[in-house]
Amino acid sequence: MVAKVITVFNQKGGCGKTTMTIQIAGTLALRGYRTLVIDMDEQNTATRWASQADDANPFPASMMNLAAMGGKMRGAVKNYLGDYDFIVIDCPPAALSDAPSSAMLISDLALIPIVPAPADMWASVAAKKLALTAQMTNETLQIRILPNMVQKNTNLARDTLDVLAEDTEIPMLRARIASRSAFRECQLTGSTVHFLSRTSAAAQEVDALTDEVLEILGVTQSKRRKA
Ligand SMILES: Nc1ncnc2c1ncn2[C@@H]1O[C@H](COP(=O)(O)OP(=O)(O)OP(=O)(O)O)[C@@H](O)[C@H]1O
Ligand SMILES: [Mg+2]
Predict the structure, then answer these.
(1) Is residue 68 domain-resident?
(2) Are 44 and 90 contacting, i.e. CB atoms less than 8 angstroms apart?
(3) What is the pLDDT at residue 227?
(4) Among 8, 72, 91, 134, which is disulfide-ready with 104 (CB 3.0 to 4.6 Å)?
(5) What is the pLDDT of residues 175-199, one digit of tens each?
(6) Is 192 near ligand 1, meaning CB less than 6 Å away?
(7) Is residue 227 part of a domain?
(8) Are 86 and 25 in contact (CB under 8 A)?
(9) Does the pLDDT value for residue 4 go beyond 80?
């Protein structure tokens, strides 16, 4: 299978791009898919996260840092399409970076993590525009909003998710990732949330998110489940 490529991006800093990249890629790898994470951020957060793992429990996906290549990364990524089932690209927050546009031209799916709060919604307008521009060239690109750090049962979250759902151009995933300490804790262990507990609410949310990503990409889940 030629790798399915997923780009995770949003110019807004701190909305959970790296967290979602690590969780999705790690979960795909735990399920037995050959998975590569490409870190396009000069902060190297994804690379550092994975390097926290000890030798006995290494981060399950492969890691590659192409941050220095910026918008020229596309050619390099194409070389790995035959070696993996999934390539997940973590983009930097920089508005002027060429990385997201370049990555989206070779991607099957663009995920835009958004925290359901006003400032994050306002900032997401630019990200949505960038994704729709990429889709004009790469017509098979699918784009989804990924609600992250959702504070369930609050009026703010409900109202902002309602507004996001009204967008007819870019659908929102059914999956919701709540604000949970598990997502911060597993940075210390270089792992997905499954390492802390396979049955936790965080792990269930990540599993549902990964299931939905596979569904969008039309991948039948036949791999042996290790997660
Ligand atoms: N669902 C969540 N629950 C709790 N904390 C979260 C969640 N998602 C992300 N965080 C935390 O929020 C912070 C920012 O997350 P992350 O680094 O993934 O965002 P980012 O968009 O990649 O940031 P940057 O723009 O700097 O690259 C981190 O401390 C992370 O642990
Ligand atoms: Mg990041």
Answers:
(1) yes
(2) no
(3) 53
(4) 134
(5) 999 999 999 999 999 999 999 999 9
(6) no
(7) no
(8) yes
(9) yes
Q: What is the Å distance from ligand 1's center to 115 Cα? A: 10
Report how far ligand 2's centroid is from the alpha carbon of 199 (Å): 26
Distances (CA, A) of 34 to 1, 28, 62, 86, 162: 10, 8, 8, 6, 36
Q: 3-class SS at 11? A: coil
Tell me whether residue 29 is in a domain: yes
- Indicate which CATH number applies to the domain containing 209: 3.40.50.300
CA dist., res. 59 & res. 39, Å (int): 14
Domain of residue 20 covers 4-216
Residue 220 has pLDDT above 90, yes or no: no
Burial of 189 (0-12, 13-18, 19+ CB in 10 A): middle
Q: Is the pLDDT of residue 95 over 90?
A: no
Which DSSP symbol is given to 148?
Answer: -
Residue 110 contacts residue 124 (beta carbons within 8 Å): no
Structure tokens at 48: 């550092």
Specify if 51 maps to a domain.
yes
| Integer CA distances (angstroms), 174 to 47, 117, 123, 144, 205, in order | 28, 18, 22, 10, 11
Q: Which atom of ligand 1 is nearest to the CA of 41?
A: 27
* Domains in the chain, number: 1
